[in-house]
Design a protein that fits this description.
With 390 residues, the protein is of the alpha/beta class. The chain has 14 helices and 9 strands. Helix 2 (44-57) packs parallel to helix 3 (75-84) and helix 8 (204-212) runs parallel beside helix 12. The longest helix has 14 residues, at 44-57. The chain is globular. The two termini are 35 Å apart. The structure holds iron/sulfur cluster (2 copies).
Length: 390
């Protein structure tokens, strides 16, 4: 797997693709970043064509998500095609619509893993977030069904103001079920730029008890699951909702995998470097995947970015504690190359907890940005002008 990742990063092959089949959903989570109206989803035939394009491009890991994937009546047709093209298939769902029959069909198409959103082990807390009464009980009822059908299940718990202290309950629930989990502190603006969901984000100071909790250990892999069998196998207890979670030297000096060996496809056929990096590089209704992936200027500019050349962050003394995301830097700070307040505040707290005497980020240190020396590569130097949102 290490060699595969290194090679795909080096050659810019699309190893891992996140494909949202719909933004429609049967829950209305308070922190959701999607517009749930259908603005013209890809048809079944268009989805199948995308899958063939991706297979030709060498994509291997495919995650179908949404919205709620079970709202696509053609889900099994799409899964059958993906199986026929030998993708490694994962799904993300709220599991409200899982039945034994549906679980059996997922197994039939060799779906490897199903990631389920759970916000709390307390029904009132979970249901207040999803705005669907009874949703926690229905979601939890799906887990044994999926496990009985031989599917791997993983819990994902985004933490926000409404469920911040529910994380221990979710961890205990996952451990009781013998399945892995991931806690996610990332609450993002909506894809259309609206900051509505940010009202639910927990303040950095309120996160302190969570960050300090000794129970925050590495997530336990599912019994029997091969440790390195997938791009996002065995991530730490904390992780982003969409990042690969894999450490690999190939990513050294890159912001992340987005646009290097991973990308995101919307239900409307738009290709983005990542669901959290809303710069469309092209649309699959008008162009083939390869034409976008290998020739879109947006992706070429992204691939030229090196962390060691970022104007502010390259000088940051607490960079090792920071989980800066270029997409959030763009959405929250307006500059994909810049620092942004939330990442700096979190990094400072983590550094403080780790015993760093003066944990101050470069953004807050007050040093003059003008002292930054331009990067040697001409292509990188041009990024500064280009890095604001399209
Ligand atoms: S853009 Fe952000 S969320 Fe997406 S892979 Fe990169 S770091 Fe992760
Ligand atoms: S803490 Fe702030 S300045 Fe430092 S690397 Fe992270 S985003 Fe950049």
């Amino acid at each position: 797997m290490d060699r595969l990742i290194a090679r795909t990063v080096e050659k810019h092959r699309p190893l891992s693709v996140h494909f949202d089949l719909t933004y429609r959903c049967n829950e209305r989570c308070v922190h959701c970043y999607l517009d749930h109206d259908d603005h013209g989803e890809l048809t079944t035939a268009e989805c199948l064509k995308v899958l063939h394009d991706l297979a030709r491009s060498g994509a291997l890991f495919l995650t179908f998500s949404g919205g709620e994937i079970f709202l696509r009546p053609d889900l099994y047709e799409i899964l059958a095609a993906a199986r026929g093209l030998h993708f490694d298939i994962s799904l993300k769902t709220n599991a409200l619509l899982v039945t034994p029959e549906r679980a059996a069909r997922l197994r039939e198409f060799d779906v490897r893993r199903v990631q389920i959103s759970v916000y709390s082990d307390i029904p009132a807390v979970h249901d207040a977030i999803t705005k669907v009464p009874g949703s926690l009980l229905r979601t939890l009822a799906a887990i044994p069904i999926l496990l009985e059908h031989g599917l791997q299940v993983k819990l994902a718990c985004p933490l926000m103001q409404e469920n911040l202290m529910a994380y221990r309950g979710v961890m205990a629930l996952a451990e009781k079920l013998g399945i892995p989990y991931i806690l996610d502190l990332t609450i993002t603006p909506m894809m259309n730029g609206s900051g509505g969901p940010l009202a639910h984000r927990a303040s950095v100071s309120s996160l302190l008890p969570v960050l300090q909790d000794p129970l925050m250990h590495a997530c336990k892999p599912q019994p029997g699951a091969p440790a390195a069998s997938a791009v996002n196998a065995s991530p730490p207890a904390f992780g982003g909702a969409v990042s690969s979670g894999i450490e690999n030297l190939a990513y050294e000096d890159l912001p992340c995998s987005a646009g290097h060996n991973s990308c995101y496809i919307s239900p409307y056929g738009d290709v983005f470097p990542c669901v959290q990096l809303p710069q469309a590089a092209g649309n699959l209704r008008r162009e083939k995947f390869d034409e976008i992936w290998y020739h879109a200027p947006q992706l070429e500019r992204l691939r030229a970015i090196r962390e060691s050349q970022l104007p502010i962050c390259s000088r940051c003394e607490i960079r090792n504690y920071c989980e800066r995301c270029p997409g959030l830097a763009l959405m929250e700070g307006g500059d994909m190359l810049g620092a942004y307040e939330r990442a700096c505040a979190l990094a400072e707290e983590k550094a403080r907890l780790a015993g760093v005497a003066v944990p101050i980020s470069a953004l807050h240190s007050g040093r003059e940005i003008a002292s930054f020396q331009p990067a040697p590569q001409a292509e990188f130097a041009s990024l500064a002008a280009d890095s604001s949102s399209d």
